[in-house]
Amino acid sequence: MIRARDIVKEYVDGDGTKVRVLDGMSLDVQDGDFVAVVGPSGSGKSTLLHLLGGLDVHYQGEVEVGGVKLRGLDDKALARFRNTHVGFVFQSFHLIPNLSALENVLLPSHFGASREDARKRAEAMLERVGLGAKKDRAPVRLSGGERQRVAIARALFTGPKLLLCDEPTGNLDAATGDGVIQLFKELHREGLTVLAVTHEDRMSAAARRVLRLKEGRLVEERADLHLATRGAP
Amino acid sequence: MDALSRLVRLSLARERKGAFFSAFGVAMGVGALVFFLGLGLGVGRVIREKIFPTDARLVDVVPSAVSLGSLLGGGKLDAATVERLAALPGVEATYRKMNVRVPAVTRYDGVFFGARLRMGMEVLAVGVEPGLVKDDVKLGEFKDPSEGQPIPALVSTRLLELYNKTFAPARKLPQLSANMIVGFGFPVEFNRSYVAATTGGPTGAAQTQVVGASDRAMLAGITIPLETAVRINRQAGVDAETFTGVTLVASDPSRVPAIVDAVKGMGLEIDDQERRMAENTGAAVALVTSALALLSILICILAAVNIAHALSASVRARAKEIGVMQAVGASRADVRGIVLAEAAVVGLFGGAAGTALALLMAFGVNRLAVSQLPNFPFKPDSFFSFPWPVVVGGVLLGLVAALAGAYFPARRAAATDPARTLAG
């Protein structure tokens, strides 16, 4: 599903200093895997997520997702890749406040996804995350957990094989976060590949694999090993 | 498209204050432009059609005021010269004119369209060939009458207008239409004057009958058949051989410049006084209209700048939204399209509102002019002219101004880095 080789990503910070956030990192993720990426702040977790999702193409190395090599794709092709191959879930939900829950879920349909039965599919997706009854509500009238579920429904709308999550439970209380994690588990069981960047032990505990990033390198990788210590970075 | 248009609509609704002021600016610029263009075109039309009606195919040839005359074989408009003029390339027809070269007076004492009128005045007369005015003759034939019959005469439509708007109200006389004066008769005595010396020949009394009004008729006088003018001049013993002028009809307006050059080459002059007055007046109107249009376009440019500011602020405020759209599949072109679509809605609304406002104001001004302005000569029914390109162009200008203003904000929006805006 994901094959990344020798990824180097640098940026220039406010002081004009060149910072290398990913330093020759390589990664393989199989279809249907559930991977948690952990590491301290600034270790390059979110950056890695953006590279894998085609949001950032300014790096060295090679990224292949679902058989698509991202380097060299033009903007239109990259947009289509994001529309059809991956779904994003963010810590801050990033729902569009003017649109209802249903319209937020429908958003990808305006940018290339099949428009056929779009509304029905969006409604089904909201049912799937338990929000069928609140489809017409504006985000401001939904709880944090509900907003994140709408964001997940939006991410799943185009039927991607890969779900990329950036601290998906970071803004949720424990109980609500557990509900969202449970949803990810269900989606994983249904065959979806999930890669989540997280600080949360509960989230990484739910994953089948845990990758640890430190100073831009993949320094630790364990399969089926749950982090035991709460509060670990 | 429905939800995308809803996105645009909702975004505009959220920014409705800014969108309203942006549209208002566009409406002011477009409205002012359409209004002033309509006014300029309307006034120009009055000048062209009423005050200085000119035919682009006509060339009025007159003898040279200062000429070496027969030494160079030019300057005199006799039959031979007219034949040479008729033979010029591009000349389709020639119509000779001859002034009645003796003074004439009219003394009227009777009922004038229901009002008692007693007056005497000097009369100028010119004879023209019937073909030049055939479309304007409404009674009988325009030819030298047989003994005892009245002389057919045409009056100028502009003279009629001046009479109606100044003379008639001042003297409490009835206002007259072109049709009303057809058949009206008045006496004329040729070779007689209240103010000037005559030739000393016999005085000829005649009855004159108005047979129509014409743009081609002499402004301050009467226009009679050429043969009549020749006969009167001959009877008075003055020059009845050379012509006062010749009107040439070009086969096409594009041939006129070449004809003019050829005529001047023959030592003759072109009487383009009216045409030049029309052109000068038209140019003055065009100049004022252009200045006002320029001012209006400046308003449109300011409106575009305002839109640029408003959209730039909006794009900055919506950076995360734009990032989300990119994350779910929006390309840079899609993002650019959304911002431009918002501007297009503002521009179309502003353009349409401005154009409608201009039409409404023109209607109001016309109503005011009818009720408040005195009835001056050539006062038009409408001071405005709004051909469809002006109306459609007004709306399109609003669109173009808004899109121009949105260009850089749209580019900035399209350049949003989703990885950066969605981080954290």
TrEMBL record, chain A:
Any one annotated GO CC term: membrane protein complex
Q: Which residues form the ABC transporter domain?
A: 2-232
Matching entries from SMART domains are given as: AAA
Please indicate if the UniProt record lists Cell division as a keyword. Answer: no
Q: Does the keyword Transport apply?
A: yes
- PROSITE patterns in alphabetical order: ABC_TRANSPORTER_1 (PS00211), ABC_TRANSPORTER_2 (PS50893)
Q: Kindly list the GO molecular function terms attached to this UniProt entry.
A: ATP binding; ATP hydrolysis activity; transmembrane transporter activity
- UniProt KW keywords: ATP-binding, Nucleotide-binding, Transport
Protein name as catalogued: ABC transporter ATP-binding protein
| Taxonomic source organism | Pyxidicoccus fallax
